Amino acid sequence: MDFIKKNKKIISIIILALIIYIRCDYGVTKDYAIVMNLIADGIGFIYCLVLTKMDFEATKKSIFNVAILWLVLFQALQFVYGHFMLFDSNDIYSMQYTILTIGPAVLCYEILWHNREQLIEVLSPVGVIVIIATFITTMKYDYLWEYAFRGEFYRLGEVPGGSDIDTGNLYLLMLIPIFYSIIVLKRIVPYILPALAGMIGIVLTGSKSSALPMVLVIGIMLLSTAKNKRDVKKYIAFMVIFVVVATIAVLAVPMLYDILGYRLVEVFTAFSDNSGEYDLHTSTGQRLAVIDAFKKHFWEKPILGHGFYSFMTMPYSKLEEYYVDGVISYRNIQTHMNILELLFGFGFVGVITYYWYPVKQFIDVIKSKSHMAKVMGLSFLASIFFMNLGLEMFYKYMTPYYLYLAVYCFLKAPSTDKEN
Q1: Sign of the C-alpha dihedral, residues 361, 364, 365, 371?
Q2: What's the pLDDT band for 267 if we cut at 50, 70, 90?
């Protein structure tokens, strides 16, 4: 016990990095991945028991609070819809999958709760470990790296349990405490190289949902260090110049254009097209077609919804192109937007059950007198907002639950004179 007390920080860093890396990089659908997750979660659970024995009152406070109430309420709603297949007969919901998704997030939360006095000191090294491990993993498993080494560039970042978009989002969430260490706390030397690796990783994934909020997060943290109006103007000017230069580079440099630039052009092209037709060759065109189908059919069951993940069972959701022997066919697609999936599947009841707490958190973050809680909270919440625009995250991902629970830890962290 004395050994754990003396080394709580380093032990917490190692276990947090292990749980996050295995769950996010390997998923929980393959047999070997399930075993890996069970081992990591088992280690985390035993460690949490030790932490509870060391400080039972802290654990009690971590359980009986509004954050856990929100988690329990929404998971109960999701279980009722998914397990009993209300309003829809699809058999997508899995209790095993849910446990291996929510469980890691709760374990991470419990470890962070017992480290509330040193959250940045714990999360920054965790981010470094996960970013480096993920970079190595994607180089091993994503076959497109072979083309990249030959000078042919495509979106890079696929891992056994996630797509390049998932990897980009993971990079961003791991980068946020690192950015805080560099920009706010001026701890540049230990973190600058991992930060550059994460930023390069985001660009290589071609993920709009992580590239755009990354710029926003940097802006939030720069502005948080401003001491006067002159600093504010200076940082705003810097961010404008940075965005302009980055945009020109993404559009002008062939490698960057092949990875990310064409996706930005695709967005502007899709929204400027007034023909009423949707280009299903592009992801943006598919998303617009999804929104159009949603608007036509959501009001059929607006209060309770159509059922768990029911949109992808509807005939009007066949919007994603794929090829069979060179012939284009279409398959059912999810809404790929968190709020749309919640609205369509659970109706207004589901959206209120899920989003009342993130909205409350945003208000609490704005009102917080802690500089760290305000900056980290805004950065995390802004990032997940953009991610939710491109993915339905409430069931398949541990990251939103990990994030909202982490923000709660920041809101309840003790402020220090140095931090203020």
Answers
A1: negative
A2: confident
Q: Is the pLDDT of residue 261 over 90?
A: no
- pTM exceeds 0.90, yes or no: yes
> What is the pLDDT averaged over residues 160-170?
94
Q: What gap in Å lies between CA 170 and CA 219, rounded to an integer? A: 19
The answer to whether the beta carbons of residues 349 and 305 sit under 8 Å apart is: yes
- For residues 187 and 179, what is the distance between their CA atoms, to the nearest angstrom? 9
339 contact partners, CB below 8 Å, separation of at least 6: 351, 355, 388
Conformation bin of residue 241: beta by default, left when phi > 0, alpha when psi is -120 to 50: alpha
pLDDT higher than 70, residue 273: no
The answer to whether 29 touches 65, Cβ cutoff 8 Å, is: no
For the stretch 322-346, pLDDT in tens is: 777 777 788 888 888 999 999 999 9
The 10s digit of each residue's pLDDT in 2-45 is: 888 899 999 999 999 999 999 999 999 999 999 999 999 999 99
Report the C-alpha gap between 333 and 320 in whole angstroms: 6
Please classify residue 416 by burial: count the beta carbons closer than 10 Å to its beta carbon, then call 0-12 exposed, 13-18 middle and 19+ buried: exposed
